[in-house]
Amino acid sequence: MAARGGKSSSGTAKAAASIPQLSWDGTRAAPVVLVSGTETVLADRAMRALRDLLKVEDPSLEVSDILASDYAPGELLTLASPSLFAEPRLIRVDAVEKCTDAFLSETLAYLSDPAEGAVVVLRHAGGVRGKKLLDAIRSGLGGGVEVVCAELKKDSDKYEFARAEFARAQKRIAPGALRAITTAFVDDLAELAAACQQLISDASEEITEATVDKYYGGRVEANAFRVADAAIAGRHGEALVTLRHALASGADPVPIVAAFASKIRTMAKLSGARGASGQLARQFGLAPWQVERAQRDLRGWDEAGLGRCIETLAATDAAIKGGGRDPVFSLERLVRVVSARGAV
Fold it and tell me: Which domains are delineated in the chain?
């Protein structure tokens, strides 16, 4: 995913940075590489990609790890100093957001004169600790680059992440299959990435919805979005059966309500909106397929029904989070109200 403007997870304005801002899949070497943001999956990939890149350039690469929260004074300078044979060095520093005072002061000093042949990677997962160091790196001190690994919050971002996984592997996947795999693992980027890689590794031909169903049918069928899809389409019996199967399989009520909220919120945004799917997608921060899906879902609905469903959603959310005695009853009532398009 391309790095975006605005603010990073640490709250520092990217517009103020004078060093290159890279996406996780555009990582490159520099004397100092700041890997910022809360998305651990992307940060891990960026750091792994950098190690692999440096290994290809020189197999004698020395790799060392430092924990900034448990830093021993002098550790960075010792590891960065060239050895007898002057092998290239990669020094990976984790938990910079929890760094000690010694690490902070010594790393700031290091930026003024980085060691030749060394690449220092600083992983900062967010927060205000170490802000002085981040500001110094972003100002250009040390000749660094920043790899921005911000959290992928929108469903459209996760859909694009999955699409890029298959594109990089030059593996064809049908649009319906891509939607299915994204929906099945939308709540966990690590699981989504693993599922994509398994399909890429195991499927010999184009990946279809049948392929996804073969591998992850149980997950998809019991997925919260399947319950919401059936209810929104007016298929009360199917939605109820799917709900009970999901709960019996150990599904938590909270993500089920969240799935309803996500879909109905999108429908409410697009209710009455006019324009091409691409135009509306840009306007509302959605993927075109989400716009088209919401427009299909809205057939047969009216604003009054949407309003009643939103009120029921709020009541159900409160009930399953401790405000009610029977979360299952609340969920079944939600399914009934949504299946009737709010006309109850």
Answer: 14-148 (3.40.50.300), 152-221 (1.10.8), 224-344 (1.20.272.10)
